[in-house]
Amino acid sequence: MAVFFIALGGPARFTALLATGLNLLLTLFLFARYDQLIGGWQYVREMAVLPQLRLNFSLGADGLSLTMLLLTTLVSFAAIWTAPKIERSPQLFYCCLLLISGGLVGAFSSIDLFFLYGFHEIALIPVFIMIGIWGSGDRQRAAWKATLYLGAGSFLVLLGIVALYLSGPAGLRSFDVRSLLEMAQSDLFHPASWIYLLLLAGLGTLVSLFPFHSWAPSTYSSAPPSTAMLHAGVLKKFGLYGLLRFVLPLFPEAVTQFSTLLLALLTCNILYIGYVTMAQRRLDWTLAYSSVMHMGTIFLGLASMNMMGLSGAGLFMFGHGLSIALLLALCGALKRRTTTLEYHELGGLAKLTPRLSLLFGFATMASLGLPGFTNFAGEVLIFFGATATAVIDHGSLPFIVATIAAVWGVVISSIYMLRAYRAVFFGALRETARCAAVQDLRPFEFLPASLLIVCLLVTGIFPKLLLKMLTLAFS
Amino acid sequence: MLLADLFYPVNPLYLEFSVVLLGLALLVVEAFVPGCSKKALALIGVTGLLLILLATWLPWQPLDPSMASAHFYTWDALALFFKRFMIVMTILTMLMSLPFVPSIERSIPGEKSGSGVGEFFILPIFACASLMWLVSAVNFIMLFVSLECLSIVLYVAITYFRNDSKSLEAGTKYLILSALATGFLVYGIAWIFGTTGTMSINELSKAIAGLPLSSLTPLLFGIGLILVAFCFKIGAVPFQFWLPDVYQGAPTPITAFLSVASKAGGFVILLRLLEQLYTIPLLAKKMSVIVLALAVMTLLFGNLAAMAQSNMKRLLAYSSIAHTGYLLMAVVSIGAPLMGMAIQCYLAAYLLMTSLAFLVLLIVSQKLSNDELYSFQGLHQRSPFLACAMTIAMASLAGLPLTIGFIGKLFVFEVALQQRHYGLVVIGSISVVAGLYYYLKVVRAMYWQQPSEGAYPIVVSKKIGCLIGALAGGIVVLGIYPAPLFFLFK
After folding, report:
1. Residue B252 within any structural domain of the chain
2. CB contact at 8 A, B109 and B53
3. How many domains does chain B have?
4. In chain A, what are the domain boundaries?
5. Chain A closest CA to B263's CA: distance in Å?
6. What φ, ψ does residue B336 adopt, rounded to 5°?
7. Do A122 and B417 make contact, defined as CB atoms within 8 angstroms?
8. Does B440 touch chain A (CB under 8 A)?
9. Do the chains contact at B414 and A133, CB–CB below 8 Å?
10. Predicted ipTM of the assembly
11. What is the pTM of this model?
């Protein structure tokens, strides 16, 4: 497992591509070799770090983390492949991308909360640097906003983790997810519910849960496409992963106790942000807000707390990660050609760029949850899971409202995605200079996007590939 | 036989004596060996200190309690750790002074070139010896004498640049305020002696326990005065006014020494004193309120004031105040099982990251001969290596994970949570986010902005490069695998 650490030897484009490619193959290999009969954590490697705190550096993978690892390596590979020629210090660019990606791989394969948290934080400074140097628009503000929001959010998570650690019985305290769960099951361990709120606020900030979402749109629209792909596609999923990994299993009572709060917030995510998304007049802002909105649906899956909802959330995380990365990559490609993303300045590009518009069409369909794509399977499972919980709860009103909102959210997202698609690619071709000499996608843009689409289709048509793994993790 | 008697079991007092002897020997060599290169002098000093550092692992025996010196000098784990700490910091200061030689030569008026450089290397050795005494002091007299020794060395070192008005101003400020603090200290000691009749810190709690309630007020008055003196040393708000000016004016290696070693010495005494006072429940309550207030003020002031700084040295000065705040957070939580470890760990982390930051600052400011934040602009293009090292230092100071600064912060927040100081933890969290802002300001300058005057590269010599690499590597490696650090605490 230790091979996951990427050597930053000669970090030019080729090395970066090679490293992430190898990583992808390795993950696929691990994915295939995972023994589904046994389940649980496999490939575990441990090393004692601080015996005084019972802190171990332990790596391993189970169904959930393997799914996330697959997502990480896929998106990193595509993000590096699709990066255009960098004018200013390319070494630094690829170094930063690799650092983000390596940190995520480390985070998703850590069993120990300390390192789970630590690896995630590696991304903070590279993202700051990347937005600042290669970003667009009001990039300085966006970089500060994202960094301070995420820094504060992760600090809350840290406090939550330390409090969690301290609430264990002395002598048995541990950062290890496995032993924490064991302790919780054997009634040795009763973390207070304020820790749950702390962790929810912290992880919620990382996932852009309403009302901590305002960093996300500006970040995604200002960051260079590759960074935005990694950030929106994978980094943001870290918060959800944290919730799934240790928060929900450790606080079953607190989750039910505060479920109304969570449901209210996620309904805001879906409806409020959904309508905000509809009001956007620029492609990048539409995509950025849509990614915030979809988090609400995933949260609904988490809140349902049953097998269907949770594995649906896992599946949707995977699908959404791929589809938003795909959309952002194409959006970046479009911007390089037209230098603008305002709807009123674009239109009719389908004639000039058939390949781009075809891929974008696929991405749109994936994002709004058309059957055949992973997102559809995920969303359907989430709705079923949420409805099941609502029924078991004797028709708990907040659950019903939130589920209806989420289903309505699908309609909202169809509206804005299709409208965006129409505004950019159909209608009359604007006779502005910007749209006059637009070329179609080149291979370095076309191939990674197709790779992502193929993955979306494969896991969409055969969701069982992933679902088997996910259900193993949640059983 | 005789030799074995002489050295085993050895009296630990020899450690300090050997440091002083080393300093004296270097002075003699400097004065009487003509043509002795200053660099060789520094290297002899560093080698000597390294040998003494190794010697701390010898099986020293605690002093025989019947000996007179045992009433003054203790040999416990805390003292041992901080003796090593002081030696390491002195070595780093001397190594840092090597690339600083051109600045010294420029600022010292002398007939021949290189005059006055030798002493600059030797002064920290004497400061080191007095700090080593200080961390072992268990008697107010011993404490006072070693503190004065230290202060006198620092007065000279801070005003070392006699041509530079800033250095002189810093020295004067330090002289006056430090003298004032010393006055408070002596006066406080007098009051405590007057009420309890003992000069020993170790017997303080026993003496206080037998006191009538009426003598509590004079006792508290004395303790308050002593606290003022040590808050001055560690730079806790509201006794921090000297810090930014002195840090800015003093020669950079001395600033680093002041910021790390002198602060650590103050914390050791604070710990020894408070540990005694906390055994009396009535005093414990009062003390914890005072220290809590100090911690809150220091955290807020240090972090919020640092956000507005545009001079790198002043920024580091305010950041040093902020770190005092975090350390005080741990001090408030006295009684938590890991409290001592938290403070040691934090200070060790602080040593590495502050030295690295000052070292990079020193090299960059040598090229532009100023230490404003804008001289860091575009450093990434002028020297990716330095920019990377500085980013690591800043990440560690900000407490980002996988650096040693994070381990320190983790411990501090853990002990604070364990003692249920929730309000303090909230203030601490606000300061961490504020800290993220001003440390990232440096990162922004290095990466986002274009260099101000033509991007000519900064060449770092191999030796200094190794030193920077070792410090940066230490920060990251110990941040991931801190076990070696804890080996030192045993």
Report:
1. no
2. no
3. 1
4. 258-475
5. 26
6. -70, 140
7. no
8. yes
9. no
10. 0.81
11. 0.87
